Amino acid sequence: MNQRHLEFFGPDLGRGPFSPHRIETAAVQIATALAQVRAPLTRSDEDLFDHADFIRQMADRLAPDWAAQISIDVGEESSNTVQTTIRASVGTYSLIDCWLADDGGGGLTVIAPSSVTFNTGTVLETITANKRFLLITPTNGVINVDVAYGATKTWRWGVSRYGRVYYSTALTFS
């Protein structure tokens, strides 16, 4: 018979989190248990999403070789340039594949921007000029990139790490 019972006020840390045979699952379980010390006091959606992001980041730090989570923050257009921050929050170097797509779920765009400049990170290979890149993040996992274009166009960054693909919100040029 299973000796587990329901805990209404958090995990039963007296018994500790059980360790499955998959490191990525164990990392999430341990991160969830550790995150209980900062559980949100409100029930707002924003607080819950922030708490879930914190658990994911902690799990990625516990097991960085299995971390795939990427976050992408797209700025507003300013002087025909849109700045984007791509974050692989694992606290070490990461290899990521980035491309500009015409829409979410899309492959490589047909029209290239005027320029793509990486302010942080190392471009290991430019696969297609101003469209697709293989990058190494710095140790903090943050890449900052500027895309410049002088006409009206919308792109999205496609970013892949460990076979998982993430798409950014729209980079809109008007």
Describe this structure in words.
- This protein is an alpha+beta fold and 174 residues long.
- The protein is built from two helices and ten strands; from the N terminus they run ααββββββββββ.
- The chain has helices at residues 23-35, 45-62, and strands at 71-74, 81-87, 95-101, 115-118, 122-128, 132-136, 142-148, 153-161, 164-167, 171-173.
- Strands 3, 5, 6, 8, 9 and 10 form a six-stranded antiparallel sheet that branches. A four-stranded antiparallel sheet has the order 1-2-7-4, with no helix packed on it.
- β8 and β9 (164-167) form a beta hairpin.
- It is globular and about 50 Å long.
- The N and C termini lie far apart (64 Å).
- 24% of the residues are buried.
Outline:
This protein is of the alpha+beta class and 174 residues long.
User: Count of DSSP E strands?
Assistant: 10
Mean pLDDT: 85
Helix content: 10-25%
Decide which structural class fits the backbone. Answer: alpha+beta
pLDDT under 50 segments (min length 5)? none
Could you state the order of secondary-structure elements as H and E? Answer: HHEEEEEEEEEE
Radius of gyration (Å) = 20 Å
Main pleated sheet: 6 strands, antiparallel
> What portion of residues belong to β-strands?
25-35%
Q: Give the CA-based shape.
A: globular
